[in-house]
Design goal:
Length: 297
Amino acid sequence: MVQIRKMNKADIKTVSNFISDLNNIEESHIGYCGKEKREIAYSLTEDLSDIKYNESFVVAVEDDRLIGVLGFDADLDDHCAEIWGPFIKENKWDIVLSMWNEMIKLLPIEINSISMFPNKKNLGVLKLADTLNFKEVSEQTILTFHQDCLSELKEVPIIELSQEYYLDMKQLHEQAFPDTYYDGQQIIERLNQNRKVFMIKDNENLIGYIYVEAEPEFGEASIEFFAVNEFKRGKGIGRQLLSVALKWIFTFETIDSVTLCVNSKNTNAIRLYKQVGFKRMHDLCFFTKNLEINSLV
């Protein structure tokens, strides 16, 4: 008999291993979640700050064996939540709606939209998104760059964003990414020794920036945003910014690769990343659903 219950502290290791095993397979891959066991455990226990894992995740257990995990990462300020999963053993997908219904009971009333980010080969979650009337917003491509290609990058001066250019960076960011998960001010507030914005100037004017996050304890890093002034595009500035970011990332000895996500329709950006040395890794679909009374299931 299958038992579906809230996740607890004793489940952390088992759940982290379970998600890691499935998220390394394209047919069960979810873009929001990591692939390394320790990183997943850390995310569950430390990154889920608004709603803790024991109030946002459910597990399915059969004969004392874990067969399913489903949860959400809530952002109460933005009234939204990212769905982790569902991660379910291949021959146990008949439990998916039961798991979904139990998870939905945990959603705070402040949440008015939820999103899913499955791999395009994750047919189980794609079918679930259709069943639950999620709306497909976009298709995204994940690319990766390995340290082995570092020697092929050109030498470019590394200039960190300074306070006098905060306003210029925020304006460029808002122009390039008007509706995204971090606005310019939020990026600035996040800056620390492992989160950097680098910039390129022309006659003391900021003409491009790139925002990068490193997690050296997990051997991971990501390029979150970068943009170039529209009047300066086509002059190799994008490649320079990427080179700066990558050279900084690989100053961390524990990091041997970096990933980034780009809209699959942005063929110019994908071409640029490939020219620098990135390789295509995954293709994913981004779904959202606005929550109304009786619309959760």
